[in-house]
Amino acid sequence: MKLFGSYTSPFVRHCRIVLAQHQQQFEFVPTDYAQSAQHSPAQRVPFFSHNGLQLHDSSSILRYLRSLAEQPFCQDPEQFDLYCLVNTALDTTVNLFLLERDGITVDQVSYLQRQQSRVTSILDELNQRDWPVGDATNDAHLRLACFLSWAQFRERLDIHQWPELQSFLTTMNQQAWFANTHPALS
Fold it and tell me: pLDDT digits over 159-181, tens only?
């Protein structure tokens, strides 16, 4: 098993957490933008290989890893919808971050303002929910925790605006299996 990616990617982190949970032996291959463009048609990380199988998206990787462990990936429609909602916010926030690195900011482009509004709307919605103690097998919760942690690490949002999400992240950060994969530790 080989997982290609960067230690700071929240998508890769989610995969690393699941691999660690299942105590799967794997090789982590640090991969930058140029390498991902050469080796994955998606031109992003993570990508993954195992016994001739090539996967190019964190969601397909997670589904595969859960199936190897005979666990469901997003066991019901509500959990999958939450996963998709969080994934939308995460993907949008990553894109805004990368555009800003290239000198294009939200205040310059009305389309990007709408994208930022989308992220805020999703976080507002998620903050209205009750969040249980972190479930290590709930991929929607893991995706949310990886997103919030990455957004704080990259200074993309002030989590204090969403106290329920802040509490959720604090709880997740107390779980060794989550805390041990923080991007700052890499």
Answer: 999 999 999 999 999 999 899 99
Side-chain half-sphere CA neighbours of 94 within 13 A: 18
**Residues 142-162 pLDDT 10s:** 999 999 999 999 999 999 999
Cβ contact 47:9 at 8 Å: no
**Span between the terminal Cα atoms of the chain, in Å:** 20
Contact of 44 with 176, CB cutoff 8 Å: no
Residue 29 has pLDDT above 80, yes or no: yes
